Amino acid sequence: MIFAFLFGSLMLALVGVFMFMMVIFYQKRKIKSIREQQRLITQYEQSVLKAKVEIREETLKYVGQELHDNVGQVLSLIKIYLSRPDTQRKTDVKQLIDQAIMDIRSLSQDLNINRVEQYSLGDFIEQELNKVHKAGVVKTYFEHEHTCEPSNIQDRLMVSRIFQECINNILKHAEAKHIFVKLVARNNSCVLSVVDDGIGFNTAAFHTGSGLANIYDRVKLIGGTIEIASASGCGTKIKLCIPKS
Amino acid sequence: MNTVTIILLSLILLGAIISFYRRRIFGTPILRFFPFFLLFQFTYQLAAYLYSFVFTEHASNYFIFNITLPLNMAYFSLMFYEIIKHPLKRRLIAVGAVANLLFYAVNIVFLQGFFALMTYSRTMMAVTVVVYSLFYFHEMLTSEVGNEKNPTRDATFWIVTAIFFFYLCSTLTIIAWDYLRINNEIIGPSMVRVFGFLLYSMYIVGIVLHKAENKEPIA
């Protein structure tokens, strides 16, 4: 009886120690997992903030350019016409003033800092492509099938910024004549493809460049995938797949 | 009836009743079947005792344990197959289950026969069950998925730990006893009874402490 009691106590102690150790291991892994989650959340929030700031900087840069190139020129022309006493120019001056008012209205809409949040992804892309098209250097084409929206505002912000970076890269480096953009909803995700007919580049050599690395990091943070296909002289095709949920 | 036997049988029956009452909170179908498995264990162990000590004059009841052995093998294999998620480990469990059952068939026909205690099959089952338990602990410690639940509030953890210790210790005890050829009729059975007591107590504790998983409602 005593033997059984002692032996039972020993077995109980062994089992207890074993379970205690398993619980300790589990707690350590849980703490590590929580820390990793928090790190990813912080990283995501920082990326979203950075994307917001960059979009605003791009907007201000664009507005500054437009003010100088368009509105400034129109106002200068108005000043010249008004300085001449020729009354036939009155109609021309009125038209120029109307033009200036329209340009300033359009720019003030661009200056709306909540533009990304207020407009859908499709509308944002269309606005950005219109700006590029208006410059006259590159022709843009946009195809939009079904409603395609990322699951939350932050993801939409990130995708908008990724799109802006792609367009900027094309304008800076690709020497393209045409840009084709397509946004479709497919299998519970949004697929955005940007194709240009520019000079292309060697994807292996540029993979670690800061611009592309930025794009890859942002795509990874929103849980999406990106494929970049390009070769020298053959243009570039970027395909971005963003989960809707 | 022997007091220790009564206590053990009562413990099994208590475990079956409590697990039956709480079976809906178990996440997996095989665990929801656990109360019936315990009831089955209670039934055949009671039947074995009654056969030997009530209906006959200490006749051998080994054939009862031999009949129920493949059902124990099948249930344990199914249980581990369901709770372990790693595909390679699952394949090994399936192979182990088939090997156990095949060896049982060979053992019953060619080796130990139906009326002798089939220690070879029992030992083989014990070894495979201990290995399956180690698979479970390994997966618990290394898997990235499913780390949210405290193991002490998970009936599966208690059941697997109980099975691990019972089959490891009882098999080592039997092997050591046979090897040392110790002719003591008290210590060996006492040790096995202590293991059995621990096994069913841990089942009951695990079932009582089990916390159902929180599932988010589907929108």
Mind explaining what this structure looks like?
The complex is a heterodimer of chains A (245) and B (219). Chain A has a domain at 121-245: Heat Shock Protein 90. Chain A has 7 helices and 5 strands, in the order ααααβαββααββ. Chain A has helices at 2-83, 90-110, 115-118, 121-135, 153-174, 203-206, 210-221; strands at 139-145, 178-186, 189-196, 225-230, 236-243. In chain A, a hairpin with a 5-residue loop joins β4 and β5. Chain B has one domain (3-209). Chain B has helices at 3-21, 29-32, 34-55, 62-83, 87-111, 119-142, 155-180, 187-209. In chain B, α7 runs antiparallel to α8 (187-209). The radius of gyration of chain B is 18 Å and the shape is globular. The A-B interface holds A 3-4, 7-8, 11-12, 14-15, 18-19, 22-23, 25-26, 29-30, 33 and B 137, 140-141, 144, 147-148, 150-152, 157, 161, 165, 169, 187, 190-191, 193-195, 197-198, 202.
Write the layout of secondary structure elements.
The complex is a heterodimer of chains A (245) and B (219).
Chain A: H1 2-83, H2 90-110, H3 115-118, H4 121-135, E1 139-145, H5 153-174, E2 178-186, E3 189-196, H6 203-206, H7 210-221, E4 225-230, E5 236-243
Parallel strand pairs in A: 1-2
Antiparallel strand pairs in A: 2-3, 3-5, 4-5
Helix pairs in contact in A: 1-2, 1-5, 4-5, 5-7
Chain B: H1 3-21, H2 29-32, H3 34-55, H4 62-83, H5 87-111, H6 119-142, H7 155-180, H8 187-209
Helix pairs in contact in B: 1-3, 1-8, 3-4, 4-5, 4-6, 5-6, 6-7, 7-8
